[in-house]
Design goal:
The protein is α/β, with parallel strands linked by helices. The protein is 47% helix and 10% strand. The protein has a 7-stranded mixed β-sheet with strand order 3-2-1-4-5-7-6. The chain starts with 10 loop residues before the first helix and ends with a strand.
Length: 418
């Protein structure tokens, strides 16, 4: 049976309150509002933070009480593979909420791992529509059904049909990656060639031959320096400004910074299990060997995920508002993705007041930043960080281990008593 839809705040209202913290008649205010409009749809068909780094950095286990942003929903499921006590999921974007609800229902009600892998691994089978109608739809609320059976445009397919022609090629990020492939071919390069590498030396050679030159073209230099172009990567103006500042401090252009992050993605990790590289350069997962796929898509975890799926609770809400509704000393693992890059000092302070209230002794917080440095020491009152410590060298190590390679910094803060 379909459960009644619950009243939820509109995505646009939540995004407005989170992002639009500057007057309209300023450059940042205008760009913030343009980003809000652009972000009000499916952005990330797959999350781009490495869950293996998160699991190790937070030391997740059966005692963990996790608080995380959903994004594509895959990392919440990846964390569930270690069977934590609970996972509280929030997101401002109703498309991302609809996606994780679809994944939850699919895990719980699809008949076996193969049908689940067809839906979210291959994500391109016509029979996925039958699986949706028979096994998944009867267990979704009306709001989620309306989203997946709705259309982006009047003439476009229903969103649920994305799973019949390559789901990961849809959404803002999927289409942006597709456009990079298209532009590269027009410029005479084929960035897919990177995936032919069999050794680290071949990875570097093929990157230098087929990818690096794209970033050095006049067109790409122009595009990389336009904040609006970065919206399809989910990069808001404040984050773009941090990246721009970092590139200027290094006396490089923005295209050089992005080229270096693309190099890390293509060259610094084995391709056989780096599913981020597969999505970026091959536009699909490793469906043959199933090694370069997220944890939650691997058969070994399927039954455990199915049994524990109700440990994930989903909320269409901001981080701060959800934390305000939670008991004191109730969480010990927080994952903020890159959301703090979006926040001003007031918003950060309000968030960390709730982190301090809800944190259990020994709790840890992991987040990413577009630039290399954490914003907390500069933007938060010292009292709010008095019980938290971080290790700069360890953070650099975590950053180097993150296979998605798109962030300037991965930061881990640990709670300690006086």
């Amino acid at each position: 049976m379909t459960t009644p839809a619950t009243t939820q705040p509109a995505t646009k209202d939540l995004l407005n309150s989170a992002v639009n913290n500057t007057h309209l008649f300023t450059r940042k205010g205008f760009l913030d509002r343009l980003f809000t409009k652009w972000f009000d749809r499916l952005v990330y068909p797959q999350i781009w933070e490495d869950p293996e780094v998160d699991i190790r950095a937070l030391e997740l286990d059966q005692h963990s009480r996790v608080f995380t942003i959903s994004s594509g929903g895959c990392n919440a499921l990846n964390y569930l593979t270690v069977e934590p006590n609970s996972i509280t999921v929030v997101d401002l974007n109703e498309a991302h909420i609809a996606l994780i609800k679809l994944k939850k229902a699919a895990l719980k009600h699809l008949p076996d791992h193969e049908s689940f892998f067809d839906f979210f691994g291959r994500a391109d089978r016509s029979k996925n529509l039958d699986a949706y109608e028979i096994h998944i739809k009867p267990h979704l609320d009306e709001k989620t059904i309306d989203y997946w059976e709705g259309r982006e445009t009047f003439w476009g397919p229903r969103r649920i049909e994305y799973f019949t022609d390559g789901f990961y090629r849809h959404g803002l990020l999927g289409r942006f990656i597709g456009s990079i492939h298209w532009v590269s071919k027009r410029l005479g390069y084929d960035i897919r060639q990177v995936m032919l590498a069999r050794t680290p030396e071949e990875q570097q050679h093929l990157f230098d031959e087929h990818v690096a030159p794209v970033f050095d073209t006049r067109l790409m230099k122009f595009l990389c320096n336009r904040a609006v172009v970065m919206y399809s990567l989910g990069i808001p103006p404040a984050q773009f400004d941090e990246m721009d500042k970092e590139s200027k401090q290094a006396q490089h252009g923005m295209h050089d910074l992005l080229k270096e992050r693309a190099r890390r993605l293509a060259c610094d990790f084995p391709l056989e299990d780096n599913y981020f590289a597969w999505q970026a350069f091959n536009r699909e997962y490793d469906i043959k060997h199933r090694q370069a796929v997220p944890r939650y898509l691997k058969q070994t975890y399927f039954e455990g995920l199915k049994q524990n799926i109700d440990r994930i609770q989903v909320h269409h809400q901001s981080m701060t508002e959800r934390l305000k509704a939670m008991p004191a000393n109730s969480l010990n693992a927080y994952l903020f993705l890159d959301a703090q890059d979006w926040m001003d000092e007031t918003q950060l302070a309000e968030l960390w007041e709730e982190v301090n209230r809800t944190a259990m002794p020994g709790a840890k917080v992991v987040f990413r930043t577009a630039g290399e440095t954490s914003p907390l020491e500069d933007k938060l009152p010292g009292a709010l960080l008095a019980h938290w410590k971080t290790n700069s060298q360890a953070n650099r190590d975590w950053t180097r281990q993150d296979r998605s390679a798109i962030y300037g910094g991965v930061h881990v803060y640990s709670h300690h008593a006086e």
